[in-house]
Amino acid sequence: MPIHKEKRIVPYRPDQMYQLVLGVNHYPDFLPWVHSAHVYDQTEALFYADLTIGSSLINQGYSSKVTFESDANHPHTYRIDVRHTKGPFHHLHNYWVFRPYTTSNASSDQCPTQTDIEFFLDFEISNPFLKPLLQPFLNQAVNLMVDAFEKRAHALFTYT
Predict the structure, then answer these.
(1) What is the CA radius of gyration of the chain?
(2) 6 vs 19, 104, 136, 145, CA distance in Å?
(3) In a 3-state reduction of DSSP, which class is residue 101?
(4) Three-state secondary structure along 31-79?
(5) What is the pTM of this model?
(6) What domains does the chain contain, in order, with CATH numbers?
(7) What is the full per-residue pLDDT of the chain (160 aa) written as tens digits?
């Protein structure tokens, strides 16, 4: 039952990172293990997504329910929760929290220019035959996930 937790400060605004992670349809553009993504039944606070993930040897589809919200009590703070609904997992839960990161001399009413990201993922593959094939691949993908989002943010939000 792999669990991955990570915290990171990135030089992008919380709303930018939040929208980037919510852009599931664009995952195949920058996450090499995501081959397809489809979002459907979207409302103001949730949507469902079907993803096909894998490598050149094996591909596996799964579906998830994604809920998202901004924190009314903490400006510029956002949360995304993902739970699998169908696919090769016994369970899969992950969340992202995006909080403003400010230095001690920054004004609290300023729009933050940096984000404190908290990422959590807990999953277990249910199929005993797929487990030895998918587990090493998924462990590697998880370790690279936050890096991939940060690189995508750099490509989208860095202006020279």
Answers:
(1) 16
(2) 19, 23, 19, 10
(3) coil
(4) CCCEEEEEEECCCCCEEEEEEEEECCCCEEEEEEEEEEEECCCCCCCEE
(5) 0.88
(6) 3-157 (3.30.530.20)
(7) 568 889 999 999 999 999 999 999 999 999 988 999 999 999 999 999 999 988 777 788 999 999 999 998 888 999 999 999 998 888 999 999 999 998 765 555 566 789 999 999 998 888 788 777 767 766 777 778 889 999 999 999 986 4
